Amino acid sequence: MFEGDVGTWWRHPLPKDPDRSHLADAIHLIDLADEELPVARAAVEQAKAAAVTARTELDKHQQWLGQHQELYTEAIKGCERRLRRQALITACKQTAWVPFQLLTTACGGLFNAALAYPRRRSLRAKLKDRIQELDHPSELKFAQQLQERIQAMDRRGLR
To answer: Nearest to residue 150, comparing CAs of 142, 141, 159?
Structure first.
């Protein structure tokens, strides 16, 4: 660097015969910068405008999304209420059918028993008639077996 203090270089006078090629290069650079500066400023302004437009569009979209999210939330709540109501109605219907099912089952059993009772009586009467016919001494053993079967049925409550 310059002789003397480090901070005093600016006090030295410029050379009396400056190099003209350096000055021409500097002037050329300044001219190029002057030519490019409006284009660069326009590009910067265009980028700023695009950023503002993008921010505005983003804000609009977020507002739209918020409104629709509220609408969708309300629609979902309505659907959930309808599903719960339908489930409750289905459960009530099933519960209401239980007494009817019990009643039909009981009536069916009583009907079957009522149909079987006369047949049982007629079969018992036929069996007694056959036993009386078999009172012959040769068939006494067979008649005793039938009589024992009837008594066993009476004990079991099948009669």
So the answer is: 159
